[in-house]
Each structure stands twice: as structure tokens, then as C-alpha cells.
């Protein structure tokens, strides 16, 4: 017995060429057209300001990949996509969602994340062990550990890890 197909969503972001109202109106027309298609489940429109420009996000969800494909090949969608070129700058950013595991982009591997955190943690842990821990020898182990982690975690999360991530991004040519 075959399992029921999972719902499929497509999320698209476009940056308005001028004031965002015209692009938002276009997005509403797109959602109304999608709602007339078989298998349509939901639509969503969102706006955000990015560097003083309006970015409009459109999401459409269909009951199956076949329903989504029918929508993507429809004359109504094709007509609306031809119209948006005058309203938006650049190419759309499109994300297809066909299962819960794809809601977020894949991040770095667990090994890479582990190494990154260890490299960010080491200098602060070394300084703590050299400078602070000798002064706390009389403290109970639990109190020393509490202080150590209270200083290490914010130091790594707010200090060394962001700097290390930015350094590695710049080094790999993907500056943030």
C-alpha cells in the first residue's frame, strides 16, 4: 500500500524595483490564481525591508508534487511570472519544500561544527585555566564549574565563535 503524498510548498522571495505595494499586489494575484488549482492547500505572503528595499515572500502549498507541477506549468502562472519582471529586481530566490527535513537549509556537517566550536572554546578555556582557576582552588568543584561555564559559554557564543565564523567565511570567499 503506497503512502499518501506529502504536501509540497514552494517559497519565493523577490525584491521590489520601486515601492513594494505593486509587487505585493502581484503576489496576491499569484496566490489567488494558485488557489484555483487542484490540490491547492495554502498560500502565504510576507514582506520585509532589506537595506531600505521591500522584499516580498510568497509561499504556495499543494497536496502533492503532481499538483505543484500542474500549477508550475499553468498558463495563469506563466502570465503572472511574465508580469513580475517589471516589478522586481534580479532573479527570484526559490526554495522547494517537499518534506519536513527540508524546511531549513542544510548546515555544516556535525564534524565541522564540532571542530569550529572546539577551536572557538579552546582559547577562552586556556585563559580561564591559567588565570582564573588557580585563584579558585579553595572553591567547591561545583561552584568552580558553575563559574567556568558561566564565563565560557557567553565568551564563545558572543565572542570567539562569531569572529571565527566571520574569519572562515571571509577566508572561503563567502563574507557575511
UniProtKB/TrEMBL annotation:
Residue spans crossing the bilayer: 115-136, 148-171
Keyword Membrane: yes
UniProt entry tagged with the keyword Cell cycle: no
InterPro entries referenced in this protein's UniProt entry, alphabetically: ABM_predict, Dimeric_a/b-barrel
Keywords on record: Membrane, Transmembrane, Transmembrane helix
Xref: PANTHER family: SLR1162 PROTEIN (PTHR40057)
Protein name: ABM domain-containing protein
Annotated organism of origin: Pseudonocardia benzenivorans
Amino acid at each position: 500500500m503506497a503512502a499518501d503524498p506529502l504536501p509540497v510548498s514552494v517559497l519565493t522571495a523577490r525584491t521590489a524595483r520601486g515601492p513594494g505595494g505593486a509587487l505585493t499586489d502581484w503576489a496576491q494575484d499569484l496566490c489567488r490564481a494558485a488557489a484555483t488549482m487542484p490540490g491547492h492547500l495554502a498560500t502565504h505572503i510576507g514582506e520585509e525591508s532589506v537595506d531600505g528595499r521591500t522584499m516580498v515572500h510568497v509561499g504556495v502549498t499543494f497536496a502533492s508534487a503532481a499538483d505543484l507541477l500542474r500549477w508550475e506549468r499553468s498558463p495563469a502562472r506563466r502570465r503572472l511570472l511574465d508580469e513580475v519582471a517589471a516589478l522586481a529586481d534580479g532573479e527570484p530566490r526559490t526554495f522547494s519544500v517537499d518534506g519536513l527535513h527540508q524546511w531549513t537549509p542544510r548546515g555544516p556537517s556535525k564534524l565541522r561544527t564540532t571542530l569550529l566550536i572546539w577551536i572557538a572554546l579552546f582559547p577562552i578555556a586556556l585563559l580561564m585555566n591559567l588565570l582564573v582557576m588557580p585563584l579558585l582552588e579553595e572553591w567547591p568543584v561545583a561552584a568552580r564549574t558553575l563559574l567556568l561555564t558561566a564565563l565560557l559559554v557567553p565568551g564563545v557564543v558572543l565572542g570567539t565563535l562569531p569572529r571565527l565564523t566571520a574569519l572562515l567565511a571571509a577566508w572561503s570567499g563567502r563574507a557575511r
